Amino acid sequence: MSTTPAGQGGVARLNPIRLGYFAFFLGLGIYLPYFSPYLIEQGFAPDTVGAMLAMVMAAKLVAPPLLGWVVDHSGRVIVWLIATALVSAVLAVGLALLAGIDAGLVGWMVLLVAFGFFWQPLLSQLDVAALRLTGPAPERYPALRAWGSIGFIVASVGLGAMIDRIGLVAVPWLMAVALVALAGVLWRVPEPGVPRETGARPVSIRDRLREPAMLGFFAGSFLINLSHGVYYAFFSVHLADLGYSATAIGLLWALGVVAEIVLFFLLPGLRNRFAPLFLLLTAIGLMALRWLLIGYQADVLGWLLFAQLLHAASFGMTHAVGIWVIDHQFPGRAHARGQAILSAASYGGGAALGLYLAGLLWGRVEPDMAFAAMTLASLLAFALMLAARRVVRWSPGEREVA
Fold this sequence. Notes:
The chain crosses the membrane at residues 21-40, 52-71, 78-99, 105-123, 144-163, 169-187, 214-234, 246-267, 274-294, 300-326, 338-363, 369-388. It is found in: Cell inner membrane. This protein has 402 residues and is mainly α. Helices cover 76% and strands 0% of the residues. Helix 1 (15-41) runs antiparallel to helix 6 and helix 4 runs antiparallel to helix 5. The longest helix has 28 residues, at 246-273. It is globular and about 50 Å long. It starts with 14 loop residues before the first helix and ends in a 10-residue tail after the last helix.
């Protein structure tokens, strides 16, 4: 692993981080469509599966801020990413081995929490590494992140067909392979320098978190990810119940990510043309529509295809704008912790509660009502982001006027 500071660097030193995103999302593209069916195959009921998936996500409440603190204080992000990826791979192998023994629910829960603790911080710190490597050109970030979407497609399509043939038993093993590949790729990534403070004095994370608008932004991010709960936990199960094959389900997951890739390459132009608040509110509105379509029209292929195209808005746009907001709000030595707090609040707390609620809803109400509940959460997120508009319009570490 090179430890030479990357500085602002050139495009060549960004190539390995692209492959890092590819490898991480290769594993995520296995986990999201197939891990809940894998747990159901182990004999767990849907409400238990929702709780189990929530435990994996709940680790994000603690793990990303902890790793962000370590990164900010050590000034090193790549070495910690490599170590975390390797431990995650070992724990994924443990999840594969549990299927062959009578570990009980407690055994599964303990290992899932441990896996989540090491796996969940990876993405937020990959984002930190990417933003540090791009230096004063954060508009390069979406093109780098798009490689993660490509990895997700390779997993959900290519590996979906493989799982059709060899069975769901392969799921945790394939996740472990992807994590080992991530560690290997990161070995080639140069250790980037820490961005300098742009304000008169260092950013106080405590003071920033006391600002009502900042808290509103984090609460809105929480609800954005909560609203994905039923989708991430039971979209594949819902489609299987409607008669779709595993290969078709993988293709439908991939379609959403293709739309996300297209969006990521369009984002630099959209960023220059439209205000971030407009982009974020538009994305949340389309997200609310998406859940209604999946809940009420999933048996109509045309509507389902359109709903999957809206993944570009519900995940791609909300994620990118959120990353940019935190990049502006938490510069310098607060950078890694700022991204980690967003990860904990949204992909941790929001996603965990969303998955838990999904488990409670699924089987107790019809699928359309479960997705309608996610639409309500989306509308609440819209209201919170509108109230927090001052933050979304950038602030203290501002490098540009948007």
